[in-house]
TrEMBL record:
The keyword Transcription regulation does not apply. It comes from the Bacteria. This is Type II secretion system protein. Pfam families: N_methyl (PF07963). GO terms for biological process: protein secretion by the type II secretion system. Keywords: Methylation. NCBIfam families: IV_pilin_GFxxxE (TIGR02532). GO terms for cellular component: type II protein secretion system complex.
Length: 157
């Protein structure tokens, strides 16, 4: 009587395989979380750069006389919305305008849906240590709490 041994895995083989898979998944989860966070930080840097570049171009155009600059004004935009809605080109007879942003970027760490509330605004008359809003927008910063992978708080980027 020759019995054929059934093909398949034993219970011990299955348990060992599942243990190895669980160990690998446990090691991969923190790595995946770090990668997602790094992508969000990269998006935050890009958004800050985009807005700061638009603010600087607005100031450059105001100082060059391409757009209206009220007397006594610093030349910086009065708010972020102006950068999206555009500003009339003084040199154009047809009423053309300069647009500095297509839209106000979203802070990837902000839970708030309103993009106007994602960003802190710093006026040209306030200090870096104590940023305050004012008559113009000199700089923007994230209102997100937390510290980046580089050890610097998101508010200080």
């Amino acid at each position: 009587m020759n019995r054929r041994r059934g093909s398949g895995f034993t219970l011990i083989e299955l348990v060992v395989t599942l243990a190895i898979l669980a160990l690998l998944a446990g090691m991969a989860a923190p790595l995946a979380e770090t990668l997602v966070r790094r992508d969000k930080e990269r998006e935050l840097k890009r958004a800050l750069y985009e807005m700061r570049d638009a603010i600087d171009r607005y100031k450059l155009y105001a100082d060059a006389g391409y757009i209206d600059k009220p007397a006594g004004s610093s030349g910086y935009p009065p708010n972020l919305t102006v950068l999206v809605e555009g500003v009339r080109d003084k040199r154009s007879a047809r009423g053309e305008a300069f647009y500095f942003l297509r839209r106000i970027p979203r802070d990837p760490f902000a839970a708030e849906l309103d993009v106007q509330r994602h960003w802190g605004l710093r006026a040209s008359t306030s200090s870096v240590e104590d940023p305050r809003e004012g008559d113009d927008v000199f700089d923007v910063y994230s209102l997100a709490r937390g510290v980046g992978l580089n050890g610097i708080a998101y508010r200080e980027w």
